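Tokens for chain A. Residues wanted.
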């Protein structure tokens, strides 16, 4: 065996799926690949070997797949010297199909040779155990830790250490991680890190390591930083032709950013931004148009993202008649050590809202939104004795006014008010209810909390607890079950105490199923001897892409990808007189629809008379054929040419590239390269020089190969001052004169033109079609009057159009025609390379060469790097030298130069050279820096020191003990700290440090330290039990004296197995879950201090009995109050109770409709029905995850009449259920305090008693009835989606159990003023929309069913 390779899914960057590396299939009649054999088998890996002649292949492509799986095949790329590969990351007891292709030196592929193999069954699970932990990198404020796992796997890891104040810190990590960065450390301090492995509730370990952080502030390149991450993208300052975008970067940093969007004509636009930029204004937009902006972050040639934002530009014709609002004065009052009050006035008009911006004590920007009717606000959480600058903006519509500014300094810390702050929870509200999540939001009337906790039971009845940060006021609860009732309890934690709860109920929505995507018909046309044209239709929906499958003449599967907006494709490279079967698939996301199939026979090669194509449609069939794709580039074009940038566009007819590379030379002749990701098809090249001609070369990169180049020429526009235009004054336009051609050859000609009068043009543009009929465009500078058109075809007629460009206008055109001369045979010089010479540098080599005769299209330089891996460097044909960078000093390299002309490669010529060695610096004499003492206890001191220059062989620490005897401690030369132990408490010591180098002793440097007094050991207080349920108990405890590093709670479960729960030192309470009902438990609490375990403190508890629920059952479903467009459904429940109900029926178009109803309800009105139509209604009862029923009933709606209907009286539509005498609930008055053009706020009172819920009924502008359910704790609600200038009557009913009281009524007339919308970022969970109805009240909750608002 010549060589081996050990590549796996988690190790090698060459291993990937065909989505990024298409499987290649080529033909070669000579087969020299043999003996594809599997030699070693394990549950997760295969070792595969093969045979091949030496030096016969440049590389190999090894592919494997599970034929029973829909997953994409894997591929491993190998160099030509390898004869084996180790495939890892496989599944146990699985059959795999193996294929091997060989890439020959000429670029063609041989093979495949195939084999099959099965992995071994999984062995018994090994007991997990930790390996070692080490420190990879240390800076002044962070350390990078790495660890290994000797056997088995862990669910998670836990790293514990003590911070500079001695407090225990814990960092939980996922089980698949093997390294982590510990940040926020203190310089020049020793830390000990303990790593634990967690499996279930068991903790293994620890394994430990120590590290000393560096002194001072390192260079930025030395700091350990988290990987870059994008935050939120928001839009502001929206006008009729521009949008201001701003974004955040929570962690790391980016080299640059790219913003992508489509203009009004649907063309993709790209705007680059520097890495330190966080905002940009997008100009030249169209009025009243919706745009979607995507932001990508570029870091180390990788693209992260996107973040997206959608907005609509304002109407260009919109003019406000009202006075523009303006701000007055901004002042500061009530300044304390951590807060102050801002007050302001509004000079004229009114604002929808205000925005206060300032920077906190760490320099981070903060923004505080305020309602439009407010004139003051309190800024909390400030730092004492710190100066702040506050900016106040007024927001009106989408515009932001100029800021008012003021400065203030907070009071010192000594001026704190000793009065304790009272913490209280406000209201808990619900919004954004979907079928699997809800958004909870709450208020804090007074004080502040350290954290919050949301508790609820999942669909299986298991207790769930979700912690939330103390500065948050909302959270999204995910992973819920559709159509299920949940009760959420919110607790606030402040000063180790838990307050609350405040509660709210919610029912998740019914899931919405999107319509399927359907293919239409597949047809064939334009059949030749080697190609066919396939055409198809799409019946419903749209696809991301299409895939055409067929088998070639040798029976090998072929695959041709097609873009999603295409409806036809030409299949090339077919064999004459052969029948093919084509399968078409539609791809949407990760799903594949189809196939649709058709047969066709290619034409005969010898016959001149065309034959009719035979096409026969067949039924769809399932296929698992391998995907093969050929790669090609085409149609590189130039557009949007300015004085300093051009836009390049290209197409990829077949295949997919990993990335692209654009190369060009700047005006100084230096080679520039711009990498582009594989999904892009456009690129804006910035920072160009005006009136400069550039040649751009496009390469496609696939794996380690580069395809191309595809060249194009472009001339940037010149910079000319724009002509001022004043209103009412006409500006003369420049005019073109004559346009002619001359000096015509077989492949080029010259064009000349004149300019008659007027001002000069900014530039000229010449357009024509090449010999293949493709449009070509050539920009020309403003001073030119002639240009040479090259690369033409002999004996071909061309028509040229000349345009003059002035500003953004194109004036002209003039036209001329010319026929190129016939091709003349010219003697060509033979291609020959001269000599290759090398000039030595430390880490690079300058190569230069000569070309005695002929010319080459390009050159290729090949060599091996320090690791022996082949490297290839392409060079343009006109170059004669290049610098090879990133070499290793004092190493021999051999460089081979090839000349490329068309498809021929000439050479190589070679040169050997050795890179220069690093310069030797004279040794620096060692010196001692400073000696300091830290971590002082009653019996020990930590000494640390610095060495500014040089190094020492060893150190020596001297001091006198409590008896006055001299003590000497030797220290190794690599250490910079030591712990001196066995000292006496409350005693002053003087420590001297000496440094030894050879036989010389330097120093001493000294420091004094006084040991601490002896402290009493920590002790536990009492352990108590509360909040006992059938499956959980709540434990709380106290600490009498001292501090513990952590706590441990132990108890036995229902099966008698010991259980242990570790807790951090700051915890004083916890909830023990997953207990058994009606069982006695004994809980033991231990305090951990260092390596000692103190305690236990014990407590007994007996869990409550489990309540047995009655199986609910449905009664009868009846229909009444039929109208032409609605029906009243009512039903009974025989036994038990339901969480909610679901009514299903089909509308007039036959589409299924679902209507969720709350559990206490027993009737509902179904609206939006069709007249004179029979409906069947099915009622289901939902209890937990079960759905019972249905019970059904049928009815026919009333025939619609043209008789005018009287004024609607919603109070008489449904009978009122009288409440029995002696009820404690009574409705008061219904009022409408606020109304706008499309919404109204209803408010009501309840003088006596309480209601379970309320129901509001009204009719819309078309006379259809509507119902809006409201929670029993609410006293107001906003009714949206009303019509301007329309009269409405609202009826309010109170629901108590199965009884309905009321109605109380109110009439209202909507206004003509529109609603303003404001959008705020949602913290990574989408966007939260806040409705501002004419600058007063926000819509802040939804009950029963979600109110859905569409994004602007």
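Reply:
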């Amino acid at each position: 065996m010549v060589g081996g390779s050990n590549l796996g899914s988690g190790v090698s960057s060459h291993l990937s799926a065909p989505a990024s590396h298409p499987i290649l299939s080529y033909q070669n009649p000579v087969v020299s690949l043999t003996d594809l054999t599997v030699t070693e088998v394990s549950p997760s890996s295969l070792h595969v070997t093969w045979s091949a002649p030496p030096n016969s292949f440049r590389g190999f492509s090894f592919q494997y797949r599970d034929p029973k799986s829909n997953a994409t095949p894997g591929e491993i790329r190998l160099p030509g010297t390898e004869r084996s590969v180790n495939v890892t990351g496989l599944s146990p007891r699985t059959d795999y199909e193996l294929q091997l292709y060989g890439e020959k030196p000429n670029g063609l592929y041989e093979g495949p040779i195939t084999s099959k193999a099965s992995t071994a069954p999984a062995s018994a699970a090994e007991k997990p155990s930790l390996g070692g932990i080490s420190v990879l990198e240390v800076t002044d404020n962070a350390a990078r830790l790495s660890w290994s796992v000797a056997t088995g796997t862990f669910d998670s890891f836990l790293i514990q250490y003590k911070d500079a104040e001695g407090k225990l810190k814990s960092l939980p990590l996922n089980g698949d991680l093997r390294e982590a960065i510990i940040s926020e450390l203190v310089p020049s301090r020793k830390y000990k890190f303990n790593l634990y492995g967690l499996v279930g509730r068991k903790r293994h370990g620890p394994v430990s390591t120590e590290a000393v952080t560096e002194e001072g502030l390192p260079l930025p390149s030395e700091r350990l930083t988290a990987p870059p991450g994008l935050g939120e993208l928001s839009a502001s300052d929206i006008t009729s032709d521009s949008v201001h975008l701003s974004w955040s970067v929570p962690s790391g940093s980016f080299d640059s950013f790219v913003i992508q969007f489509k203009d009004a004509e649907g063309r993709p636009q790209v705007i680059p931004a520097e890495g330190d930029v966080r905002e940009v204004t997008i100009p030249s937009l169209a009025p009243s148009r919706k745009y979607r902006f995507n932001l990508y972050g570029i870091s180390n040639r990788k693209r992260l993202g996107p973040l997206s934002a959608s907005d609509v530009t304002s109407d260009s014709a919109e003019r406000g008649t009202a006075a523009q609002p303006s701000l007055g004065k901004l002042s500061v009052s009530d300044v304390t050590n951590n807060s102050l009050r801002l007050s302001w006035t509004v000079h004229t008009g009114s604002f929808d809202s205000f925005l206060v911006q300032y920077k906190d004590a760490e320099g981070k920007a903060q923004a505080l939104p305020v309602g439009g009717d407010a004139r003051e606000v309190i800024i909390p959480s400030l730092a004492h004795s710190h100066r702040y600058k506050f900016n106040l903006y007024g927001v009106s519509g989408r515009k932001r006014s100029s800021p008012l500014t003021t400065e203030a300094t907070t009071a010192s810390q000594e001026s704190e008010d000793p009065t304790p702050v009272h913490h209280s929870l406000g209201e808990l509200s619900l919004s954004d209810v979907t079928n699997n999540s809800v958004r909870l939001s709450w208020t804090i009337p007074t004080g502040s909390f350290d954290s919050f906790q949301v508790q609820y039971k999942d669909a299986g009845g298991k207790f769930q607890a979700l912690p939330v940060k103390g500065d948050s006021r909302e959270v999204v609860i995910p992973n819920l079950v559709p159509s299920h009732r949940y009760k959420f309890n919110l607790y606030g934690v402040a000063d180790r105490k838990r307050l609350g709860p405040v509660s709210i109920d919610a029912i998740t929505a019914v899931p919405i199923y999107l319509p399927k995507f359907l293919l239409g018909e597949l047809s064939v046309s334009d059949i030749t001897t080697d190609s066919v044209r396939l055409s198809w239709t799409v019946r419903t929906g749209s696809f991301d892409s299409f895939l055409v499958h067929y088998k070639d003449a040798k029976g090998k599967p072929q695959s041709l990808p097609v873009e999603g907006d295409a409806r036809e494709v030409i299949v090339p490279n077919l064999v004459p007189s052969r029948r093919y079967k084509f399968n078409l698939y539609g791809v949407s996301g990760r799903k594949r629809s189809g196939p649709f199939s058709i047969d066709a026979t290619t034409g005969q090669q010898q016959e001149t008379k065309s034959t009719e194509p035979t096409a026969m449609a067949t039924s769809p069939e399932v296929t698992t054929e391998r995907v093969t794709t050929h790669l090609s580039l085409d149609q590189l074009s130039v557009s949007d040419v300015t004085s300093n940038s051009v836009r390049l566009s290209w197409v990829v007819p077949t295949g997919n590239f990993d990335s692209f590379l654009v190369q060009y030379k700047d005006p100084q002749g230096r080679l520039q390269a711009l990498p582009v990701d594989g999904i892009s098809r456009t690129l804006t090249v910035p920072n160009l020089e005006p009136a400069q001609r550039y040649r751009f070369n496009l390469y496609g990169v696939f794996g380690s190969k580069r395809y191309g180049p595809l060249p194009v020429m472009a001339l940037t526009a010149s910079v000319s001052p724009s002509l001022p235009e004043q209103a009412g004054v006409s500006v003369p336009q420049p005019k073109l004169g004559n346009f002619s051609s001359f000096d015509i050859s077989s492949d080029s000609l010259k064009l000349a033109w004149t300019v008659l009068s007027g001002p000069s043009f900014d530039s000229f543009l010449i357009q024509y079609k090449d010999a293949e009929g493709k449009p070509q465009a050539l920009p020309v500078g403003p001073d030119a009057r002639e240009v040479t058109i090259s690369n033409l075809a002999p004996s071909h007629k061309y028509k040229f159009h000349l345009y003059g460009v002035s500003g953004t206008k194109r004036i002209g055109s003039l036209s001329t025609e010319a026929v190129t001369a016939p091709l003349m045979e010219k003697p060509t010089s033979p291609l020959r390379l001269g000599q290759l010479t090398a000039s030595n540098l430390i880490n690079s080599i300058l190569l230069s060469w000569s070309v005695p005769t002929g010319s080459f299209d390009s050159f290729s330089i090949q060599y091996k790097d320090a690791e022996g891996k082949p490297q290839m460097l392409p060079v343009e044909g006109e170059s004669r030298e290049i610098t090879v960078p990133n070499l290793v000093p004092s190493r021999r390299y051999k460089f081979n130069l090839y000349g490329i002309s068309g498809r021929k490669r000439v050479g190589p010529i070679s040169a050997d050279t050795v890179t220069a060695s690093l310069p030797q610096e004279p040794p620096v004499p060692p010196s001692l820096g400073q000696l300091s003492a830290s971590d002082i206890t009653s019996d020990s001191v930590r000494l640390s020191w610095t060495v500014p220059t040089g190094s020492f062989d060893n150190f020596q620490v001297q001091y006198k003990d409590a008896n006055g005897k001299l003590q000497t401690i030797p220290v190794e030369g690599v250490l910079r700290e030591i712990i001196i132990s066995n000292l006496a408490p409350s005693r002053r010591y003087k420590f001297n440090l000496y440094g030894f180098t050879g036989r010389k002793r330097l120093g001493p440097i000294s420091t004094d330290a006084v040991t601490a007094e002896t402290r009493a050991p920590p002790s536990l207080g009492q352990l108590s039990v509360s909040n006992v349920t059938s499956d959980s108990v709540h434990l709380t405890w106290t600490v009498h004296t001292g501090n513990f590093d952590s706590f441990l709670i132990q108890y036995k479960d229902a099966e008698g197995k010991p259980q242990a729960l570790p807790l951090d030192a700051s915890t004083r309470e916890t909830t023990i879950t997953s207990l058994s009902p009606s069982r006695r438990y004994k809980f033991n609490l231990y305090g951990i201090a260092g390596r000692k375990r103190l305690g236990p403190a014990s407590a007994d508890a007996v869990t409550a009995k489990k309540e047995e629920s009655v199986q609910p059952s449905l009664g009868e479903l009846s229909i009444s109050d039929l109208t032409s467009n609605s029906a009243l459904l009512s039903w009974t429940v025989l036994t038990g109770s339901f969480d909610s109900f679901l009514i299903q029926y089909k509308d007039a178009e036959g589409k299924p409709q679902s209507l969720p109803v709350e559990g206490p309800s027993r009737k509902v009105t179904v609206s939006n029905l069709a007249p004179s139509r029979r409906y069947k209604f099915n009622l289901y009862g939902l209890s937990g995850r079960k759905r019972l029923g249905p019970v059904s009933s049928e009815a026919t709606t009333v025939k619609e009449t043209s008789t005018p209907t009287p004024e609607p009286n919603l109070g008489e539509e449904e009978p009122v259920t009288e409440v029995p005498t002696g009820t404690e609930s009574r409705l008061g008055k219904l009022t409408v305090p606020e109304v706008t053009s499309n919404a109204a706020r209803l408010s009501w009172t309840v003088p006596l008693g309480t209601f379970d819920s309320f129901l509001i009924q009204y009719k819309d502008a078309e006379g259809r009835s509507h119902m809006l359910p409201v929670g029993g704790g609410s006293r107001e609600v906003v009714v949206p989606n009303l019509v301007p200038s329309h009269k409405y009557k609202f009826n309010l009913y109170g629901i108590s159990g199965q009884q309905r009281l009321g109605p109380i009524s109110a009439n209202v007339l909507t206004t003509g003023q529109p609603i303003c919308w404001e959008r705020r970022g949602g913290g990574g969970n989408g966007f939260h929309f806040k409705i501002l109805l004419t600058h007063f009240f926000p819509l802040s909750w939804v009950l029963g069913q979600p109110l859905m608002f569409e994004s602007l």
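The mean pLDDT is 80. Residues 667 and 689 are 7 Å apart (CA to CA).
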